[in-house]
Structure formats: C-alpha cells, structure tokens
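We treat protein structure as text, and this decision shapes the records that our systems exchange. The tokens are whole numbers drawn from a learned vocabulary of local backbone shapes. Below, we set out a record of this kind in full and without editing:
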Amino acid sequence: MEWLWDVIHNEWLLGESIGVPPEDIVASFNATDRMLGTDWIEERRNRPTGRVAGFAPTLAVVATGRAVALIEGRPGAQQLADRLRAGDRAAFAELQGIYLCCVALEVELEIETELQVRERTRKPDFRIRQVGSPWIYVEVAAPDISETREQAQSVMNELASIFPNLLDNTAVDLFLRRDVTQLEIESLKREMIRLGANPVTGDHDVGFGIISVNMSHPSTFEPREFDDEPYTPRLGLARAESRGGGPATNRVSVRYPYSDERAEEFLTRESKQLSREEAGLVMLSLSSTPGSFKTW
C-alpha cells in the first residue's frame, strides 16, 4: 500500500501535528509498510476498547519506520523483519540498537552474520563498520521483567487493596524504606486503614516506611521526596477513584524500593556471543529495569 499525507493527516492525526515534517511521516509509513506490512501498521490503532487515532499510534509507526528504513535492503534484514512482525520484543530491541548505531552515519550493516568464537560459530545480532574500518560485532539484550519485580508488584497490589476502606476525599500514600515480610504487610494494611478511616493530615513514620495522609488532593498525586532518605530506585503503584467524570475523590499509592541486580549476568551471557579477537559491543535495552540507569 502507498501511504499519502492526506490519509495520515485526516484519519490518523485527525488534523493535528506531531512536530515531524509531513514528508518524513509519509516516508516512515511507507518504509514500515514495505518491511512489516499494512496489517502491522493498522494494528497500532487497535486497543481493547476499540480503534484509536492521534499522536500515539502515529508516533509508533513513525519511530518504527525511521528505524526499518535503515535495515531495508541490508543483508539479514528479512529475518529481522519477520521477527518484528511476530511481535518479538528482543527483535525490537535489536532494531533500536541498529538505529542508535547507524542513524545519520554512512556505515555498512549486516544482520545476524556468523562469527567464529573459539570452536563455535556464533551469530551476533548485527555488525557495522565505516568504510575502511574493522567490523564491530554487536549483541543486544532486552532484560525481561524479573521474578523479584513480579514479587514486588504483588506486594504493592496487596498493600493497595485497602483502597475500598478509604473515606471520601482521602489520600493515603505509602513510602517504603525496604522489603517487607508478610506480617509487616498485614500490619501496614491495618495502619493504613486506621489512618484512612480517621484522617489526620501529615506524615506518619512507621519504622520501615512513611504513611502520608492527605498531603495532596486525591486527584493531584505527585511523588514526594523525604530529605533524610537516601536515593533508591523504586517501583510505584497508585489507584484513584472518580465519580461522574469529576476529579478523583480517593487515592492510595505505594512506592516500593527495588533495584534490578542482573547487569553482570546479562553482560556475561551476551558477551559469550562475541569474540575476544574482534571489536565487540553489548547493548542493553533497559525499559523494563527500573533504576537501571543509576545502578547498572
């Protein structure tokens, strides 16, 4: 399918702008269509609630199109495109890696080329080089959600389950200093319910955390910092309720200390795909690893 600006502007953007020149948007849509197909593009507009339009689905296609334009016609591009169409998360991380390494540069690119590593033949995700320079072999990893994070998410959900016990116009926010045991979880829930049922505005220190009551309106949640607390990466969860389309009248939130400690594991594993005799690079997509930019 050949995409035209009028179709994108009227049916996708609904007449709005995303700050990208129309010719670039059209080129991105057509590059994506050639590499991934019209069905893949149309799927960006599908949501559980129905078909959508606007800047979000349009930007998703534009961002993908800019990247796939760099692999079009390159050795190994078709195999990567097949994985992208299938929704392979690792393939999208590899595409992002290629984009970062190649955008605005005159480089040679080969995808999933073979490399001899000791007695074994490996296939790094891609290799690049500028004319006259040695090849650089690149391996990309996209760490998935760890078991530790899933456990932390479960704890936050349990703590936030006190939400139905809150009075109207009440906000209860929990800031945790450390992991908590099941007995401590039950104790925290009782205290959060008690404070939420008899709201006394302020911060209430409970040793391994701080319960804040009505420190902001339920509809205007802003994570607060406490001056004496050291920096720790955190996961967060918030629940709020609105009636009749008005501002939220109840809120509970939980901030949980969490640090993904798998950096060494991933670097060790991915580097095995590379040779000590060739220039190599390991790239990590950290979108699912909270706090990684400071801790990794």
Residues 147-257 form one domain. The CA atoms of residues 13 and 35 lie 22 Å apart. The chain has a mean pLDDT of 91. The chain is about 40% helix and 20% strand.
